[in-house]
Structures are given as C-alpha cells and as structure tokens.
Amino acid sequence: MGDGKPALSPVDVAAIGRDPAALEVFYRRHVADVTRFVARRISDPHTIDDLTTEAFLAAIDSAERYQDGRGTPRAWLLGIARNVVAAEWRRHAGELDKAQRAGGHRHLDGDDIARLEEQIDAQRAARGLYATLTVLPERLRSVIELVDLDGLPLAEAAAALGIRDGTARVRLHRARKRLKAAFPNHATPARPPASATSPLAKGASS
Q1: 3-state secondary structure of 86
Q2: Residue 205: which residues within 8 A CB-CB, separation 6 or more?
Q3: Taking the CB of residue 88, how many other CB atoms lie within 10 A of it?
Q4: Half-sphere exposure (CA, 13 Å, Cβ side) for 85?
Q5: SS3 sequence, 113-135?
Q6: Is residue 4, in this structure, part of any structural domain at all?
C-alpha cells in the first residue's frame, strides 16, 4: 500500500537504534499508521499514546534484526504494534483501567488529547469490526485483522506475522468462511472505507 513517499532501505531501518536522524525519519513516516492501528483496538487516548510509544521503542530494540525480505518496514512495525497491543490486553485481562494507569502516563496537553480523540472517533467503526473477530481463534483472527481491518496486502500481513503467503491465504479464507457462518444474517465484516487523512496524521508527517 504505497503512500507516494520513497521507501526506507533496510540500512535505514537497521540504523534507527543508533542514528537519531534515521529514527526521526522513520518515526515521522510511520507514527500516523501506528496511531491509527492502535486506535482501531483501544479507545482511551492516554493508552493509545503509551502503546504507540511502546511500539516504536520495541522497533528500536529489534531494528538490527530487520530483514527486507520479510516485509516492508510498515508491515514489520505494525506486526510489532500488534504484539504490543496484545500484551496490553493480556496484562489487563481486557480491562484497561484508566484510573489505575493514569499515574504512569506521560503528560498530554489539550491539543494532543483532541487529536487522539479525533482519531478514536474516526476508528469507531473499525473497533466494532475488531470486536466481531473475537469469535475466531487467534491464528485466523490475526490474518483477517491485518488484511480486512488494517488494509495490509496479504503478503505484508504474512510478513508481519512471520508466516508464509500461502499459509496466510488459507487462514484468511477460513477466517472469512467462519465469520460468514457465525453471522449468517449479516454481510461478512469487511475493512472500513479509507477516510481522509486526519489532523493527527497531517501533524505527524509535517
């Protein structure tokens, strides 16, 4: 899924852990994608901010192991973000307690919160679709989530999950079939239409 910008080379990605300039380019290019990704799954602005930051920190830690043949930088980063969100749900058993977590958040000013809340509103439909995917086992849900919810091409979703394209294709087919069986009176949940770039995305890439 191209964004009209030149792709970062594997060397650029590998350098983000040691080169602040490379990290700045990488962050500006991908922060809007990661924020949208998290906002499709989480509805609290402070938690979205925390998890977006955690995803980039995890990317910095594993940057030296990035391999171009295993997917684009975006797919690799969204795979990391997915693991970060999953770990958050496991830590809190599905209950993101804002009151208990508030003390650990970095300070967000009014503009930060407003931008994140706009993103939360923009992803409201996607969060509803995400909830319907809980009827699927994890190995099927992970593929349909990345393809039909997040809009990754099948090959990039496979790379993000560390599985073969053929395996991803089979799991996507089975996931869609199971959803159709689970919701026989409704259309199979599909990716929400792409919306215009949000103020948050504009600010992140400026």
Answers
A1: helix
A2: 28, 29, 31, 32
A3: 19
A4: 23
A5: HHHHHHHHHHCHHHHHHHHHHHH
A6: no
Give ∠ CA 144-145-150 in degrees, rounded to 5.
Answer: 115
What is the C-alpha separation between 10 and 26, in angstroms, rounded? Answer: 12
Whose structure tokens read 């940057």? 63
For 64-89, write each residue's pLDDT tens digit: 888 877 788 999 999 999 999 988 87
For residue 2, tell me if it sits in a domain: no
Is residue 5 one of the residues assigned to a domain? no
Is residue 1 a part of any domain in this protein? no
Task: Report the distance separating Cα 47 and Cα 160, nearest Å.
Answer: 23
Band of pLDDT at residue 198, cut at 50, 70 and 90: very low
How many folded domains does the chain comprise?
A: 1
Asked if 91 contacts 47 with a C-beta cutoff of 8 angstroms, the reply is: no
CB 35: neighbour CB atoms within 10 A? Answer: 24
**How far apart are the C-alpha atoms of 201 and 32, rounded to whole Å?**
5
Residue range of the domain that includes 19: 10-205
* Cα dihedral 136, 142, 144, 146 in deg (nearest 10): 150
How far is 141 from 129, CA to CA, in rounded Å? 12
* Percent of the chain at pLDDT exceeding 90: 36
Token pair belonging to 51 = 């998890």
